[in-house]
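Email to the structure team, subject: Geranylgeranyl diphosphate synthase model.

Hi all, the expression group asked for a predicted structure before they design truncation constructs. Nothing fancy, just the tokens so they can compare against earlier work. One-line instruction: predict Geranylgeranyl diphosphate synthase, return tokens.
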Amino acid sequence: QVHASVVGAGFDIATYLEARKVIVEKALDESLPVMHENAREITESMRYSLMAGGKRIRPALCLAAAELFGGQAAIAAAMPTAVALEMIHTMSLIHDDLPAMDNDDLRRGKPTNHVLYGEPLAILAGDALLSTSFEHVAAHTKGVPAERVVDVLRRLGTCVGAVGLAGGQAMDIKCEADPNVSLDDLTWIHTHKTAALLQASVACGAILGGASAADVRALETYALKIGLAFQVADDILDVTATSEELGKTAGKDLTMDKTTYPKLLGLEKSKQVAEEMIADAKRALEPYGDKGAALAALADFIIGRKN
Ligand code: GRG
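Reply from the structure team: attached below.
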């Protein structure tokens, strides 16, 4: 039903995301002024990764959730949080690319932060982006009751911590090359490493738009499912992209030690699981009818994306 209403309304997700990207990138660009000459290099390093492209999915989720409950007016109220979410995401990517973690030289087709600025500055730029995210919400959120802003700050903190991004990454590292990783372990990693920030994105947007606690929970269910689907789709893409390149049936993830959904369930079953997760996500939006169109379209986009 929700899906049909999106299509029926001629909702074009690419146009929608591009329009959101424009207003989000303007806010991101304004969020990091050079505050002191001695801080020029670290600020440039932060800005380099923050402005290096990306789909801006987390801000889009946050703004869509805010608009669902608070209308157009809520977009301005949620923008500082949308910026903060992208700062947190960027921090996680900078740290994920470090030699101590994934040791990647390229991100979004560009040199990674530590390749350009050196490892010490990349670590510090990540730390500074994380702390600036909280500062940005506290300093710039306008027209929202203080207890809602505190709730947002608490949720941002939780989603980065030991039962969020950091914990998910720690478990991922622990499970790397472990041949006995279970589907439950994998789901725990995906839930914390990926879904937690997506859940915080919609929950914070909803809270800033004036949503009730029950509405926030419904949107968290939606975001958990799209986060899990996102990760399964990613694993599938890894396999299929490599298969096409190599002209073989088995891709790199099926031959590597790392446990993935396709490795545990096979490609077809994994595709089915991802589709079921997206259906579950959209089911959580059913109470909102046409108003949930943007979030429903974002769910489809996540599983259908090609990059
Ligand atoms: C330092 C406190 C602290 C935490 C960081 C490194 C780390 C701990 C966590 C890693 C988190 C991570 C890299 C998760 C993967 C998330 C993911 C799905 C990234 C891809 O997101 P997209 O597709 O990327 O939205 P773009 O490029 O579009 O922004």
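Residues 1-8, 246-255 have pLDDT under 50 and may be disordered. Residues 213-246 form the longest helix (34 residues). Ping us if the truncation boundaries need rechecking.
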